[in-house]
Amino acid sequence: MAAIELVDVGLDYPIYDSRARSFKQALITNLGGRLSRTDGSGRVVVEALRNVTLSVRPGERVGLIGRNGAGKSTLLKVMAGIYEPPLGRAEISGRVASLLDVTMGMDFEATGYENIVMRGVFLGMTFAEARGKFSEIERFTELGEYLTLPMRIYSTGMVLRLALAIATSGDSDILVVDEVISAGDAGFTRKARARLEMMIERAKILVIASHDENVISSLCTRAIVLSGGHVSFDGPAPDALAFYRSSIN
Predict the structure, then answer these.
(1) Edge-to-edge strands of the sheet including 96-99?
(2) Angstrom distances, CA of residue 102 to CA of 39, 43, 52, 175, 193
(3) pLDDT in tens, 199-212
(4) Which of 15, 59, 144, 159 qualifies as a FRET site for 166, CA 20 to 30 Å off?
(5) Is residue 227 assigned to a domain?
(6) Angle at the Cα of 151 (from 150 to 156), degrees rounded to 5?
(7) Residue 17 pLDDT > 90, yes or no?
(8) Number of domains the chain contains
(9) Does residue 241 lie in a domain region?
(10) Is 195 among the domain residues?
(11) What's the mean pLDDT in 136-153?
């Protein structure tokens, strides 16, 4: 069964060069004491997540809300299994598709077709399954003969088309998304949105971080408000949006 279970999860980012940059250290330290501390060596440590406990079950559509630096992207990476938290417990059950860093695992010296296989296997497909995606990805990306060429000659938009096509080509139990993706020209962006919506419908669990209240309202039944790496509200999406508005006002 698809599920996400986090218990007292904490995750820190050490700032190794902070003593050599006194202004940077002062800035981080003055974030209110909730986001930073010093370890035994005097090194500044940013507390990205602290004491996060939550459960997500099949059928739930969860939005993450918060200011920049609140911990949304870090929490998504924990839920996607990219980060293993050193504090607490994170149990992720089911096949996860993450639209966080869609180019992760791609080789710019390899061809488009080779990257479909490499990235597909990275996402949990077998080699045969990844090769079986060739025709579908050819149609979706409209890259034609470019798929036979090294990715280093691709434009940024072409790279994103291919990466997005591969990332959304498999079935998943849990879908983790960091903002709704814009993929270049308007025509392809519409195709990408339609593909993502179809993927959302198939997924048993959706977790999406967004600054767009319309995205949270339209896609999510539940929302979690993060502040300084802590969960400050967890409840129905309309109530969470109201709480967030009042907190920033």
Answers:
(1) 96-99, 174-178, 205-209, 61-65, 222-227, 230-236
(2) 34, 32, 26, 13, 15
(3) 989 999 999 999 99
(4) 59
(5) yes
(6) 150
(7) no
(8) 1
(9) yes
(10) no
(11) 96
